Each structure stands twice: as C-alpha cells, then as structure tokens.
Amino acid sequence: MASAETAAEHERILREIESTDTNCIGPTLRSVYDGQEHGLFMDKLEGRIRNHDREIEKMCNHHFQGFVDSITELLKVRGEAQKLKCQVTETNQKLQNDGKELLTSMDELRQCRLQQRNIATTIDKLTHCLPVLEMYSKLQEQMRAKRYYPALRTLEQLEESCLPQAGSYRFCGIMSENIPRLRTHIRDVSMSDLKDFLESIRKHSDKIGETAMKQAQVQIARDNAVTSQQRSASGRRIRKEACSGTEVDRTGSNPFSEKDSGILDVEDEEKDEIPGAQDLVDFSPVYRCLHIYTVLGARDTFENYYRKQRRKQARLVLQPHSNMHETLEGYRRYFNQIVGFFVVEDHILHTTQGLVNRAYVEELWELALSKTIAALRTHSSYCTDPDLILDLKNLIVLFADTLQGYGFPVNQLFDMLLEMRDQYGEILLKKWNQSFRQILDQDNYSPIPVASPEEYQRIAGQFPFQDPELDKMPFPKKLPFSEFVPKVYSQLKEFIYACLKYSEDLHLSSTEIDDMIRKSTNLLLTRTLSHCLQYAIKKKNVGLAELVQIIINTTHLEQSCHYLEEFISNITNVPPDTINATKLYGTSTFKDARHAAEEEIYTNLNQKIDQFLQLADYDWTAAQGGAQASDYLSDLIAFLCSTFAVFTHLPGNAIEHATLPGKVAQTACMSACKHLSTSLLQLLLEGDVRQVSMGALQQFNVDVKECERFARAGPVPGFQGDTLLLAFIDLRQLLDLFTQWDWSTYLADYGRPTCKYLRVNPQTALTLLEKMKDTSRKNNMFAQFRKNERDKQKLIDTVVKQLRNLIATNQA
C-alpha cells in the first residue's frame, strides 16, 4: 500500500518536472530530497529519460530523408546563382562606364545649386543681422550720450525683435549676454541720478520753501489790497486791475501752483522774478528713473525706494535745531524746509502718475503736522519775548496759509495758535507787570501841574479826562490825578493793541476776537494791575498823602473804564451791548484798590496811634493827677491834627468826586478816634495794671478830655454836631462814673434806655473797681483806724458785690 502511494507521488513529481519551467523546479526537487525514497525516485527518473531518448530517436529517423533532399536541391541553386552574379557584374560595369559623364555633370550642377543656396542663405542672414548690428551701434551711441531711457527702449527692441530673427550667432550670443549687464548699468546709473536728485531737493528745500512762502505772502497782500479796494471803491478797483493785469484769484485746487507743474507761480509784473521749484531743482532725473524702472518692470521697487528715502528726509526736516527758539530766523528756516519738502511732493504728485499718491502725501503731512506742532509747543514755551511770540505767530500763519494753498489741512496749526495765545497773554502780563511797577515806582503821587493849553491837550489825548470847571480855570493849574493815571491808561490801550495784533489773521470772527481781547484785558486788570496797585499800597514808607492820591487816581481810572469798553468795541467792530459780550472788570479792580488804599490809611493811622500809646507812662498809684494832658497824648493829638490837615487841603474841589477826600478824612478820623478810645480803655484795663489810684484816674481823665477837645474842634469838616465825640462816649461815661462816684445812679438806672451810664459795661466797671479796691487796701495801712476810709471800703465792697450780682443776672 505504501509502495503504491510512493509510486504515485513519484509519478506526480515527474509530471510536474516535465511540465514546469526549470526555474521553478527547486521546491519540487527539495520535496524529493526531503523524502525517504530518494533512490527509488532516481531509478524511476532514469527510466523516464530512456523513454524520452527513444522517442527523440524515432522522430529523427522519420525526418532524415527530407533533410537530405533539401541539401541536394540547395546545391543545384548555388550554380544558377553564380551565373546570375556574373551577369549582374557585367551589366553594372557597362552602366558605370556609360554614367561617368552624367555623374560629372550632375556633380557640377549640385555644386552650383549648393553655392546658389548658400548665397541666398547668406543674403537672408545678413538681412536679419544688419539691423541687429545697427541697433546695437545705436544702443552704444545712446549709452555714450547718457540717453538711458531711449537706450532701454532700444535694448528692449533689440532683445525682443532683432536678436530672435538674427539667429544663434556668436556675436548674437555676446549681445544677449551683454543685455542684462546693460540693463543693470542703466538701472544703477538712473538710481545714482535719483540719489543726486534727492540730495539736490534736500539742499534746495529751504530755498523752495522760502520762495513758496514769499509767493503766499504776496498773494495774501494782494488779496487784502483788493478787499480794501472793494470796500472803498469797487469801480476804481476794477479799472486798476484791468490796467495792471493782476490776477486776483486762480482756478484749481492750488492757488499758488501752475497748472501742469505744481510749482509756485511768479508775478509777471516784477522785474526780479522769484524762481519756482522747477528753476531750483531739475526734476528730470526722477521722471527718467521712474520711466526706466517702469520699463524694467521694477516700478514698485522704485516707488518704495523713493518713498522710503523721502520719509527719511521728512524726519530730518522735521527735526528742529536745539536753539531754534532763540531767534525768529531759526523758526523761519525750519518752516522753509518743511514747506519746500511738501512743495516738491506736491509737484511730484501732480507731474507723475502713481509715484506718490494722495494717501502717501497725506500720511506724510499728518506726520509732519504732529511733529511740527510738538516742536513748536516745546520751543515756544522757552520764549519770554512777546514780540518774538507775535512774529512767530505771523510766521506760523504764513506757513499755514502757504500749505493750505497746496491743499493741506492746517486747522490743527490754527488750534495750536489759539493755545499759544494763552502763553502770549501770560508773557504780556509779565511784561505789563514790569511796566506798571515801573510807572508806580517812578510816580511822584502828586497832582499833575499844567502850564499851557498844549500840555493840557497832550494829557487829555492820553487820558479821557473832562472837567468843565477845571477848563475855566486859568493856567497854570493842576489836574487832580498824578502821572501814573495817563500812563496806566496808555499801557492798557497798548495791551489791547498787542492782543489785537495776535488775534489778526487767525480766521476768527469779530465776536471771537472781541471776547479774547476782553478776557485778556480782564486778566490784566484783575491780576496784574490789581497786584501792582496792591504792591504800591502795601509797600513800606507810603505816606498818607500818597495813599489819598492813589484813591483819587483809581477813581479816575474807574471812571475811564467805559472809554476802554468803547475803545475795544471800535477796534473789533462789535457793539458793547452784544448778547453774551464779556464785560470789563476794571470798575471792580479800581474799587478794590481804592478800598485797599483806604484800609491802608486807617491801618497806618492806627499803627501810628499804637506807637504813640507805647510811649504812655502812667503812674497808676499817684495820689493826685496833673492839670495838663500827658506828653505822649499831646504829641499824638498834634500828629492827628497835621495828618487830617493833609486831607483837608487836598485838591479836588472842582471835580465830580470833590467829596472823596472829605469822606476818606471823615472815615479815617472816626476810625482813629475809635481806635484811640478803645486803646486807652485797654490800657486802663490791661492785666499788667494791677492797681489804679484815684489820682491816676484823674490824670487819665485829663488825657481823655484832651482827646474830646480834639474831637470837638472838628479836625475834619463834614461831621454833624458832636458825632466825633461819640467815639469817646464809652470811655467818658466810665470815667464820669468813677470820678463822680455815682454808683447809686448807675445801679438804679442800669438797663434803662435813659440811663446816664448806658455805655458802661458792668464787667468793665467791676474790673476797674477791683483795681481801685486793691489800691485802697495796700496804700492805706491804717485805713481801718479811720472811719471815712472804712466806710469807703465798705461801699466799694458793696458795689463790687452788687456788680457781680448784676453780671450774674445778665448772664443768666
């Protein structure tokens, strides 16, 4: 059974070997070698090989006769082929001999045809090469002549048209290799020209800006002149303009530029024409470079480079010099450079297509505007000269008007000028503060003597003073005020003019100008002039006569305030009764100064009185008083009499405020008497005085009577009856109570309106009585042995007790 299976497997393997490609019998043979019947398989394989050999031998024997027949027939054909070969050779020899002449003729014809074709080809190639050579020669000439833009066009035509038609010759290859180098050379040369151009406009920006600002100034002056002529005589203006050919207004967005170049226009009437930007700078390099880069396909690169370089130049131009604020010329150079820069940019904007656009120029202007305003704010803050500030303002206005003529927005510049207006006002206030101080320091505080009508008219022209009664008086005569009144008034008008000068050309309405002037004038009045007047009033060594003259002066200045109102209205053409119009505070300023002077008079008088009172030397324990007033009080009364005589003899009876010195004198006199009365009472009651004898009280009473005689004598006219005596009424009733020892009446009538001692305070009476009580105890050692003294002491004790009860009752 096993041998049958083995035989079948060997048979399968043999069939597989017979039918399989020899490259794939490896696995089959491996299965044989892996088996156990290797020898048996080899026997079987040899048997199969013998079978196939027998079959091959049978097949060869079957076809051998046909093979022999084929060889025999092939031998017969070889003989015939040899005969045919000989015939062909003979025929060929004959043909060769017969065609030698024909071949010679054909060869000659071929050579002629070849030469003819070469000539035609040469002519054709030369026809294509000659334009190339001519074009290249033209290119070389253009390069030598530095006509780079035509050279670039020639180069483009040579590369795109001529060289492709000429073919691939060596010289064409050399030309083709040179073309990129030529392009690079042209680009580099044009870029060098552009750099020279940028350097040129950087150098000439100052001159270009100066030219533009001169043109703007001429245009503004011309417009102002035309406006004035229109107001005065419109017909005459038209005739003059027709004769002179003056161009008043230009069409277009740029009133200062030509139609096609954007450069400043030059007046035809002027002999010395002002050059424009195109006369100062040659713009051809930038145009040429722009065209070249456009042809080269690098326009964007050129635009970016140009804008980048101009931005760098803008930053340099916008960087001010550190000492720019020192002189107006520094500001002028700064503005000229900025104007020159933007005039060039405006020219480039209008003469090129796309090199710079409106957005780029506006971006640069925004940068310039912010940096310019910042620089002006910084540098103008260092300025302390109002004239320089005013000149700077006019220069900024011209700068703004010039650039506005080129279409640039300049509202921020005018806003900054309004900010500078506050700084200008502060500088003016400082300057006028010095002027006022100098006027007040140099004034003699005496009425102005007038010796002639001419002098009177001169002063009346400086200060609006009218007094019909004074006009009737003969010369020489005296004006009631001192020199500082017309000087201060003139300075006020000068200040208003200075404010008006700054407000001009700021494109403000008359109402706005009027409001600015009035507000500035109010600051001058309420702050500067007020402080100067206070300084003059409060400074040391100011006499009463000077203080009274200040009162008279401030009264006249107060009365002149409505003239200042009219003056401002006249120069601004704004009626003073306009709604919301700012009113001048001059009246209140001068009133405050007058009141301060009056208070200073009262204070000085009181201080003098205190100085005299410090000389008082009472013997508070004296047994008996003197018959005459104390020396210090006599000197005090003499001082007061001489002082009030100054008030009485002051001029001013012929002016409206003739009662002013009298009122001041009356108030001062009443104030002095009250202060004297109060000080005497405090002197009597002060704590350092522990004892007061009846003799001392009598001496004190003599001094008070001297004061009353002074009051009764009327040192200052105008008091009705014994009004001035009322200042001493408290002291008089107190002294009468003690000298007359009328305690029963005082205690009985206290609190009644008809009380004889109505002005005596119980506490004051008690204080003085206790001082007298102590004096009685200490100075009368044996008072208890005298009946009268004992009775008096008991009376004092009783009165003291009653006064204390009275005080307690009033407090409850």
UniProtKB/TrEMBL annotation:
Residues 225-269 are annotated as: Disordered. This is Exocyst complex component. Keywords: Exocytosis, Transport. Component of the exocyst complex involved in the docking of exocytic vesicles with fusion sites on the plasma membrane. Residues 44-213 form the Exocyst complex component EXOC6/Sec15 N-terminal domain. The keyword Transport applies. Residues 412-771 form the Exocyst complex subunit EXOC6/Sec15 C-terminal domain. Belongs to the SEC15 family. InterPro entries: EXOC6/Sec15 (IPR007225), EXOC6/Sec15_C (IPR046361), EXOC6/Sec15_C_dom1 (IPR042045), EXOC6_Sec15_N (IPR048359), EXOC6PINT-1/Sec15/Tip20_C_dom2 (IPR042044). Pfam families: EXOC6_Sec15_N (PF20651), Sec15_C (PF04091).
